Amino acid sequence: MNRQVLKAQAKDVLRNHYWPMVGLSVLLMIFGGGSGSANTIRAVFTDDNSIALATYSTIVGMLIGVFVVNPLTVGVNRYMIRISRGEQARFEDVIYAFHHNYFNVVKIMLMEVVFILLWSLLLVIPGIYKAFEYSMIPYLLAEDSSLSQKEAFATTKRIMSGHIGDYFVLTLSFFLWYFLGALTFGILYIFYVVPYVNLTYTQFYLLLTKLPEDNTFVNINNQNTDLS
Fold first, then answer.
1. Residue 151 and residue 185: Cα distance in Å, rounded?
2. Which stretches are transmembrane (predicted)?
3. Closest CA to 220 of 129, 132, 138, 156
4. Predicted TM-score (pTM) of this structure
């Protein structure tokens, strides 16, 4: 798997859809980053009921993540898949999961997090491995939000089989960009790093689903893979 080709393809897509991708990055950062962390810190240091307020803020943040950020992530992935394929994408794609099997998407995305956390309780390495193995679930749901939990997990495990190492190395290859983004106080994240990285992962997904041995949405119900 040629990382340079994936990144070059991502850059081509980004050049043609730069400002929409920046806008989507801002949207995700608003909901994902503004889910209560600042309020939690403020509450701990300034209020007599700091623990209660911090707990409340954390719970609210978790709920926003489960019911807003996760479905929104699926919709953004749908948007990126479509523009990467040269198709016309619209705002309706971004909110796709909110009006197509919403609670199914919420459930599966939540279970992804739960399973990763459970594996992480064993050791850090199994948790990281499972996070990589399950990483294609938001993309699969972006293409078909009606997938069952069993289908989604079985499919991501199948298409990631033999490619965990590729995904790990691809992730490491962005380290310098994350470092530069931190140096610019997050400005570079918004205007380049987040759109570029997300589009590269989209190219990774599209490549996996094009591989000769893959039949992502064919006879999936005949598979007998457990959720281990």
1. 40
2. 21-45, 51-76, 108-129, 167-194
3. 156
4. 0.86
Q: Name residue 192's amino acid.
A: Y
- Which DSSP letter does residue 222 get? G
Structural domains in the chain (count): 1
Residue 90, token pair as written in the block: 């619209």
Structural tokens at position 84: 């990467």
> What domain range is 90 assigned to?
3-211
**Residues 6 or more apart in contact with residue 39 via CB below 8 angstroms:** 53, 57
91 contacts: CB under 8 Å, gap ≥ 6? none
Per-residue pLDDT tens over the stretch 111-158: 999 999 999 998 889 999 999 999 999 999 999 999 999 999 999 999
3-state secondary structure of 157: helix
In a domain, 180, yes or no: yes
Q: Residues 142, 147, 150, CA angle at the centre, nearest 5°?
A: 125
